Amino acid sequence: MAGWLARAPRAALLELVSRIGFLARGVVYVSVGALALLAAFDLTPHAGGAVSAMASWGRWPAGVALIWLTATGLVGFATWRFLQAVFDADGHGHALRGLVVRAGQAVSGAAHAILAWSLFGLLDGLEDLNEAGDQDAAQSVAAAVLAWPHGDMLLIGSGGAILVFAVGSVCQGLFQAFAKRLGCSPVACRWAVSLARLGYVGRGLALAPMGVFLAEAGFDARAASARDFAGALQVVEDQPFGTLVLGLAAVGLIAFGLFAVFEAGFRRIVLDPAAW
Fold first, then answer.
1. Integer Cα distance of 211 and 239 in angstroms
2. How many Cα atoms within 13 Å fall on the side-chain side of residue 43?
3. Do residues 48 and 58 make contact, with C-beta atoms less than 8 angstroms apart?
4. Hey, where are the domains in the chain?
5. Of the candidates 31, 30, 119, the residue with the CA atom closest to the CA atom of residue 70
6. What is residue 52's DSSP assignment?
7. What is the pLDDT of residue 34?
8. How far from the centroid of its chain's Cα atoms is residue 112's Cα?
9. Fewer CB atoms < 10 Å away: N or C end of the chain?
10. What does the radius of gyration of the chain's CA atoms come to, in whole angstroms?
C-alpha cells in the first residue's frame, strides 16, 4: 500500500482525497438534516448540530467506524478547499470577486478542519455529549468574547458574517450554474442541479437564525442570547409555523448532503501540481 502511494501521481491522490471529502461532507449534512426532520415530526426531542448529529451514529453497529471515516474524509475536504483557495483550482481569478470567493473557500476549509477535529474528539467521549452541553458551550464562548475589548462588536460582526454567508448560499442556490462543474449525463445533471438549488437555499435558511442570535448577543451584550446551530433551529421551531420552516430547512440540508455525495463521483476536479 505504501509503495502504491509513493508511485501514484500527486494529482490523482489529491483528487481521490477530495472526492472522499465530498462524500464525508454529504454524510454530515444528511445526518444533520435527518435529525432536524425527525425533530420537525416530534420523533426526537430537538434538532442537532453536526457533532450531535454524528454522535447519534455512535449508537449503531459500526457507527464509531463511520464517524472516524467521516472525520478523516473531512480532513480531505478541508485540504481540497485550501487548494482551491491558494491555487485557484476553480479558475475564479485574481479580481476582487474571485479573491472574495477564494477567501470564502479558505474559511470553508478551516471550518471543515475544525469539524474534523471535533469529530475525532467525539470518538473519545461519545457518552459525554449532550445538547445542553453544546448550548452551554456556545454561550460560554459568547461570554468569553464579550469580556474582550470591543467583544460586542466582534459578536455583531461574526453574526453579520454568518448572515452574509447564509444569504450568499441562498443566492448560489438560485443563480449558480452548477452543471458547469459536473461531468455527468444531461439527465443526471438536471436532477443534481435541482438537488443543489434546493440544498443551497435550505442551507442558507438553516444558518440565518444562528447569525441573527449571535448578532443579537452582541447588540444586547448578553451571552445568553447566543445560540449554536441546533439552538437556533429550536427557537425557530417554537415560533408560529416553525415546524413547517424547520421541516423545509431539514429537507434542504438533506438535499445539500445528497448533492455533495453526487459531487464525490461527478464533480470536475482540476489539479495541476506543476503550479505548486
1. 17
2. 8
3. no
4. 9-275
5. 119
6. H
7. 92
8. 7
9. N
10. 19
For residue 65, which amino acid is it? A
Residues paired with residue 102 on neighbouring β-strands, in sequence order: none
pLDDT band at 4 (very low <50, low <70, confident <90, very high): very low
pTM (predicted TM-score):
0.84
Which grid cell sits at 125?
A: 467521549
In sequence order, the 6+-apart residues with CB closer than 8 A to the CB of 31 are 50, 53, 54, 56, 57, 257
pLDDT at 259 over 90: yes
Q: Which three cell numbers stand for residue 199?
A: 440544498
Cell 469580556, residue located: 147
The SS3 assignment for 91 reads coil
Interatomic CA distance for residues 260 and 28, integer angstroms = 10
Question: Which residue reads 454561550 in cell numbers?
Answer: 139
Q: Which three cell numbers stand for residue 186?
A: 444531461
Phi, psi of 51 (to 5 degrees): -70, -45
Q: Per-residue pLDDT tens for 39-59?
A: 888 887 777 788 888 888 877
Is 90 in contact with 42 (CB distance < 8 Å)? no
Please check whether residue 19 is in contact with residue 265, taking contact to mean a CB–CB distance below 8 angstroms: yes
